[in-house]
Structures are given as C-alpha cells and as structure tokens.
Amino acid sequence: MERTLRLPTDTRRVDVAGPSERNLKIIREALGVKLSARSELVRITGDPEPVEHAAALVERLVESARNRQPLSRQELLDAVATVASTPSAASMTRPPGADGARSLQAGVASPGDPAPAATVADDLAERQGFEVYLPGRLVRPMTPGQHLYAEAIARNDLVFCTGPAGSGKTYLAVAAAAAMLKRGRIRKIVLVRPAVEAGERIGFLPGTLQEKVNPYLRPLLDALHDMMEFEHIQRLTAADLIEIIPLAFMRGRTLNDACVILDEAQNTTRSQMLMFLTRLGHGSKMIVTGDVSQTDLEHPADSGLIDAIRRLRLTRGVATIALEKADIVRHELVQRVVEAYGPPAGKLKPDPAPQTPEAESDPMG
Question: What is the DSSP letter of 255?
C-alpha cells in the first residue's frame, strides 16, 4: 500500500520532519514502513495498517506545526506508542517477516527465520509491548532502539544490550521476563548482578546474606515492583519462581526453562562472564545488560561484557543491541547529563583554555 501526503505551504518543513528528519525516522523505524520526504510531499509505503498509522502520525505532526506548537520528541514517541498498541486482525495474521522487521546485526536471526521458544503471535505482541502482572499494565518500547531490543529478545536466546543510563536496558529485560513467566513460556526468572561497589568502599554489611546483597540488587527489585504487586513478588520468590542473586552464586548451576538477566555486566571479569554464559540451559533465555562507560572495575579494559560482545558478535542466535542517548526515556535532563559527560565516556569535556592577555585584541586598536 502507498499513501502520499502533501505538506501545507503554511507550515515549516522542519517543524514536521524534525531536526535532521528525526520525526520521520522515528515513525519509519517504529512502524516498519518506507517513508520518504521530497519537497512538500511525504510518501509512505508498506503494509496497510502500518501505512495508515504512519499517515495519521504525519497528519498530527502537520496539524501541530500549523498551530505553531511542533511536537517534541517525547510527545511523538508517546503518540507512536499509542498507535502501536492497537493491533488489528490483519496484523495478527500477517506472515512472519512481512511486518517490516529486519536483521539487527550480523549473527542475529533474520526476520524469516523461526523464532526460538516463541510463536509468531508472541513476537508480534512483544513488539507492541510486554503484558506484565499488574492489571492493564503494558510495558511498551518507546523508541526505535527499544523496539529492536524487544524484537531481539523475542527472536534470540542470548541478547547483549549496552547503552547509557535511562535507556531502558534493565527495565525492558525485566518486563520481558515477567511477560514470559505470565504466559508460561518459562518456569522461572533469575535476576543476577555482580556485587561490585560503585567507586566507594562501604565495608562490612551486617545481617543475613540476603540483607548483605540487597543493596546491590535493588535496581532489579525496583523494576520488578513496577511489574507486579509486592505480595505477588513475595509468593513467587518463596516458590522459587523468582530468584535474585549475586553473580558469584551462579557457579555450577544449569538453568533450564528460565529467563536469566545479568545486569551491570560491565562490572564482570572475563572469567565471570564465561561462567555466567555457560549456565544457559534448555528452553532458557539470557539477557545481558550494561553500560560500558560506567565500569567500576579496577582495570576497565578487562570488562567481561566488552570481551563477550567482541567474541560472540558473529555467533548465530546471539543478538547485540546498542542503545544510544536518543533512547533515554528518563527525565529529559538525564539525556543532557549523558551528553555533557561524553566523549570520552564517563569523563567531563575539558574547559577551553583561558586566553592570555597577549592573545586578546586591544580594544583601543
């Protein structure tokens, strides 16, 4: 199907397309359509439903520009998420590979390949969002990068995801695990984190083992509390359907029919990463997340995450997703903070050198 829209002469093209055509790129990537803009014409081609959704979004951009209130990036992402959350009967019966999905990176299954441990309906549903335990709660990917991440989780048994703080690496991984547990596609969720202090020495911690490691595992618990009620988490934990443990306790185990998430993986050593990856059992998925710019290792070059991505980047069945600053969905200041601290990652840009009196021009000539 093809639709052509004409931009009104009373709107600025940049208000519709966005800086560097950012708005058009977001629509194209999120809905899987072909979208091109030439002069005052916007041409959209693809399957009927995504084309209609894309046309509606372009018309909304035009209307906002005409009212001199261009949509912000976040407002457009919200509009895309709303459109993507209303599948039709046609979208649920579309054959595999016809929905605009594409290969993410070398070594990743192509759209026509069968998705391991998932039905086509599940794949399509997960691209719309993850249905977690809270009533009416649907965790949706909000950016093109996050949509690729969700698709990678559906199609691969091992996924590496890197990206800056606030880009949704951990949150979407936990949402995917909760959705798979709810559907009965797995029997257990295992949340794992290395117990590495973030640049501080906090010393001996009193209490039981669980009380000692809780501070390190808190971010995973925070994400989980957004997916289900506290009492439900307690029941599933007591039944050993949810396990939250430090990485050191993974040695010697084989995890079948589980979704295993390793968070803050930039703080693993090479030997720890090898130990973790070899725990993968039948019917299981592993999701490994981290921010390579925030390693707390004494020698950051020894990061097991960086090493694993380099070794496995061409391995079939393994996906590597690199989220970027544009995928940050926390407070808008987080994106500005990340930009201010790079490059190089994690370090402030040097201030410009002050001019010496000799270098300044004499105002008196």
Answer: B
Give the distance, in angstroms, between the CA of residue 148 and the centroid of all CA atoms in the same chain.
8
SS3 per-residue string spanning 19-34: HHHHHHHHHHHHHCCE
Within a 13 Å sphere around the CA of 96, how many CA atoms are in the beta-carbon half? 17
The SS3 of residue 197 is: coil
* Amino acid (1-letter code) at residue 132: V
Model pTM score: 0.58
- Structure token pair of residue 5: 């829209």
Burial class (CB in 10 A: 0-12, 13-18, 19+), 269: middle
Q: Residues 64-98, buried b or exposed e (16+ Cβ, 10 A)?
A: bbbeeebbebeebbebbbebbeeeeeebeebeeee
Which three-class secondary structure state does DSSP give residue 313? coil
Per residue in 275-323, pLDDT (tens digit) is 999 999 999 999 999 998 888 777 777 899 999 999 998 898 899 999 9
**Residue 279, C-beta contacts closer than 8 angstroms, at least 6 positions apart:** 250, 253, 254, 255, 260
How many CB atoms are located within 10 Å of the residue 193 CB? 23
Which segment of 83-87, 163-167, 196-200, 261-265 scores lowest on mean pLDDT? 196-200
Query: Using one digit for the tens of pLDDT, what is the confidence trace for 194-203?
Result: 875 444 444 4
